[in-house]
Every structure is written in C-alpha cells, then in structure tokens.
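Predict the holo structure. Ligand: iron/sulfur cluster.
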Amino acid sequence: MRLSVQSLAEQINDIGFQCLGCGQCCQGDDNSVVVFPSEIRRIMAKTDLDWLEIARPPKDGEWDSNGDFHTLEWRLKKIGPGCRFYQKGKCAIYGSRPLLCRTYPFYLVEGELCCSECSGLGLKIEMDTAREIAEQLISRHITEIKEAIALTERYEDFQRGNCLEGGSYVVHDSEGEHRVPRFTAPRSSPHPRSCQ
Ligand code: SF4
C-alpha cells in the first residue's frame, strides 16, 4: 500500500486534533514509549544523560539458559508512573522527543490511520499541522521498517532457559546486542530485577 501525506493529512483533518498539553500521554501506567537507538543517541547529544538514564529494557522478554533476560526494544525510562522527561507540566526534550511522541495519538496499522485515546481528538486542526503529523507518521513507519530489518540482520538467537538470579539484560536492536546489568529498578517498576 502506498502512503500519501495528502491523504493522511486529510484524514487527520477530518478527525480533528489539538494537543491540550494535559500530559496524560506522558504519565500513568499506560505510558510506555518505544524509543529507537538513533533517537536515544539524539537525546544523549542534547542532554548530559547516558543511555540507561534515557532508556530501559521493557518487561517483555525471554530468559536464556545463563539467566540473562532478552528483549527486543527500548522504552523511555520512567520515574514513578510517568516518563522521566515530563517535568513541571511539559516535555523537557520536546525538540528531541521520539517519533512516537511526535505522532501521538495517531499511528498506522497496515497503512490504515488509527487513534489512541486522547482528549484532544475531535478539535479543530489546521491543515498545515495535519500535514506535519502525516509526514511524521510516514517517517515513523519507515523508521520502524528499517529498524526491524536491521534487528533481523543482527539478531543472534539463544538457548531458552529459566529465570536465574544474577545475569544481565540483553537488548537486541538495530545496532546488535546491548548487554546491561539487571540494575536495581524503582520499586514500582515492572523490570525483572529478580525472578519473583
Ligand atoms: S518524551 Fe516528552 S512527549 Fe514523550 S512521553 Fe516523555 S515527556 Fe511526553
């Protein structure tokens, strides 16, 4: 299916959307922003934060026979229930925020425009803004495909096993394998820091 900026922009315009700045999409248990390595590096360049201060492995994954926990993507780090970059009622990395944030509440499924829950849906949107979101949606779609291809090319399979104490996270992404310690996670975090 060929994606057209004009067609997507017209659909967004018909649906209507304005960001109310409520921060609902940046907070709460449902907030879980997938972030790609290139986006993490861009945020690193704009801040003085290191990789693990920006992103963490998600809770979904599989154990290998050495007790390491394998996952396939990164999520923006949370502090408490919200994104660590939601500070004083706004995004502290607005100009460098990930594509998922730039396109929220819209996303594409097999070329079809879909919407997540958002209080700003239905409000009047200028066509220029709708076009910008449409361009970002296509950029996100292309990035996701490129990331998936690069991940597949670099992915090395492993022997499945059961949870063991100790071990590391192994995050497979478009850059290959990142091995990071099973750091002590915040109490509310779902990270599998132990086998419990
Ligand atoms: S990066 Fe910014 S826009 Fe994205 S969830 Fe965090 S605070 Fe919200």
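Confidence is low (pLDDT under 50) at residues 184-190. The chain has five helices and 13 strands.
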